[in-house]
Predict the structure.
Amino acid sequence: MKVGALAPFAHEGGGPAGPGVGKGTERDFAMFRNPLALSRKGGFIGMGARLSHIRGRAYEFYKRNTGPLFFIAISAAALALRCSLMFNESGDYGYFLFPWIQEMRSDGGLASLGRAVGDYYIPYTFILTLFSLLPVSPLISIKLFSIMFDFILAVGCVRVVCHLVDGQKRKHAYAKLVFSTVLLLPTVVLNSAAWGQCDSIYTSFIIFSIYALMRKKHSLGFFHFALALCFKLQAVFFFPVFILIYLSGRRYSLANFLIIPAVLLTAALPAVFAGRPVMDILRIYIDQTSTYSSLVKNYSNIYQFLPNRYKLFTVVGISFTFALLGAFALYAMRRKHAITGKVLLGLGLWSVYTCVMFLPSMHERYAYVADIVSVLYFAVTRKKIIIPIFINYVSLMSYFPFLFEFHALDFRMLVALNLAVYAYFTADLIKHLESSRKSAQKPAAAIEETL
């Protein structure tokens, strides 16, 4: 290109616009030949200023939205992790869930509620019936529903912890810690995404039951517990907490306990309307207790040390567990402990932990509530981190044989570890109970709000 072609842009220095080149034109060409010259005229400086402004705005947006961005990032990571396991078919899906849904489809969907298909109570059976009507794989529907409750569970745990910690900054920090920990716990990820189980559903309702009790909304606490029991019989492991709270101070009426059967009966109505006999519905959980004749199903409890004499040791084990729970209830009644939010978490963890440790026929998944509550207990007490670490470690090692046919450790080693952690936690809980009782006896002391 000839220099004169750019002459119309040369106005500085007095050179006429035309085919000739004036002094102003030479200076303008110098800008194009030397970028530094252009920067001196403000071109690059303007661009740099705009980039700096954009970076500043982005940083300000990040500072204002650090919390939401963190939760979005953790949620995306947790969802991506679960998606990687979405197409894994467990033995429970192949032998039970998929055949049940096929049978529901052949019966015409909702009409199948009129007879016994599967061994779940009515609410989850109803949900499986709805899945049988969808034009997608039942595997995806089942897992997505459980994964949705993984997030609901994490939100419930955040609410519990934020209720018990003081200060806005601490609440934000603990919310991030608990939300990410619960969503990324190996047993939580495997349970819903690899296994397709529904333990996050009933555990979510138990967590919201704890949250309601902490806020002295006792009827709502019973209602959420009843919803948990509608989805899984194992929710009953948390029931002794309601008795312990009642005996330690009678903070609610015996009439509150009637909420539980009322919700269970209401939840059965879809099956009743479909023609299923009421007595058949009421026997669902009774029949579940006699489904297995093994003393233990992969969980690391005391029955790993015993021969599989089911009839003999079942009676002994159930009697011992009830005696242990009864002794603790008597202790709580006599000592009149102050039931604070921290104590409530401790009682919930101890109740579930005791049941899975000493009751027979415990599956590897039955400590799911203990896995979650142990994390919350550590978060609010800020001590004894080995308790949630080892409780979750034992659960994870118990998952491996069923899911992956892999034994990382001998079960007897896991049982010894589990018993040691149980004894350590029980001693720590009793110490904490005595400490809270003494604090409650000091009238001038600023004590934590009780239930």
Notes: Residues 60 and 282 are 59 Å apart (CA to CA).
